[in-house]
Description:
The protein is α/β, with parallel strands linked by helices. It has one domain (48-370): Metal-dependent hydrolases (TIM Barrel). It is built from 14 helices and 17 strands. It has helices spanning 74-85, 90-107, 132-144, 176-191, 211-218, 234-244, 248-255, 272-281, 289-294, 302-307, 324-339, 352-368, 399-408, 433-447, and strands at residues 2-11, 14-24, 27-33, 38-45, 48-52, 111-116, 147-154, 198-199, 202-203, 226-230, 262-266, 284-287, 311-314, 383-386, 414-419, 422-426, 429-430. The strands form three sheets. It has an eight-stranded mixed sheet with strand order 3-2-1-4-14-15-16-17. Helix 8 links the parallel strand 11 and strand 12 (284-287). Helix 2 runs parallel beside helix 3. The termini are far apart. The model has no long low-confidence stretch (mean pLDDT 95).
Amino acid sequence: xxxxxxxxxxxxxxxxxxxxxxxxxxxxVSVGQGGEGLRVGCLIPAPVNLHLHSFQRAMAGLTxxxxxxGRDSFWTWRQLMFRFLDSLTPEEVEAIAAFAQVEALxxxxxxxxxxHYLHHQPDGTPYDDLAEMSGRICAAADTTGCGLxxxxxxxxxxxxxGRPLAPGQVRFGNAPDRFVRLWQEAGEAVTAxxxxxxxxxxxxxxxxxxxxxxxxxxxxxxxxxIHMHLAEQVAEVEEVEAALGARPVDWLLxxxxxxxxxxxxxxxxxxxxxTRRLARSGAIAGLCPVTExxxxxxxxxxxxxxxxxxxxxxxxxxxxxxxxxxxxxxxEYSQRLRDRGRAMLAEPRRSTGRVLxxxxxxxxxxxxxRPSGAIATGLWADLLALDTSHVDLEGRTGDALLDSWxxxxxSRMVAEVWSAxxxxxxxxxxxxxxxxxxxxxxxxxxxxxxx
Length: 451
């Protein structure tokens, strides 16, 4: 049994002082007051990073040059990404994923939901082990102790017209029947991990999966998480509407029983009515505000979505920057910039930072199918301790701690992190950072100059 004693902790009903949390077999077995244990200043729930393409971490910062052919956009960035991933080996993908997971843990995330579509060899030929690449993501999680919801992605064609995958996309491609086998074999890799690991499924998007393929994937597991890119780009919305007679959000809600086990990623191109419908469905909006800003996707309608009872979580997507505080900050700032106001997501009894942290923790846990997201008995012990001796946190309590961390701080304020009770970050540093970083550096030495 582990015992953690916090001077202050954020519990489901609010802040409490002198809190002792006991953890056994990865789960919280009691929450009380008084007692001894590992002493921390401020203990809060550690959210799930609900959307990550970990291999893209290796190209962070390498796509900021002007496109000589014209204006840069998501679509020109995507071509660079395709070119980059053509050279990645399974061993390199594992090394990159481990490094991305270390960064996520050090940023305060307890787990990642890996939206995993890099399945095959560069020419599209499957590996001898059909789920080779999924196994590499699991091996990385085994090394880092990061909680994992693995989401193998079905990606079947290049657009709504069913056109074949382009050369840069063929590593992703599967017909639904082969994907079922891949998904099953990926599940075997997940079962070798600790019991908090989870398998879900991810039809890539309305434009990359046929209606029949989406229905088949949805039926694979009637209880598991379903993640899907939805309405990220104007051109995507226009293509879907032209082909299917409806915008992607409306089409999905009209044709599938979207509910709380769905996580719909981005949704930066929604009408007010679509926003209300999505909120009322119970699905999680998977927001990646740093990537959405970097790629020029647009701004999620967070105020309207929240007003209708919608729930959200945050993820690092392209891994241009893996930071829990920055994702939360960027979400709030996007609402301020659009509507020219301040403290947009704050509530009468909860500050902006507290709303962001609590809702991201709850929404991320739901999206990952991971019983966590709060400091409560029976949940996985996904916990984060802030360094209250930091110059910008010292002497602050309650909501002011969260506001100072999110709006005036960064990952350096994260002192300790537990993932299902595994104490993986201590003193602000991951316990396996050195060997994981050395391996990542070797990969980057080979990849340097590809973009």
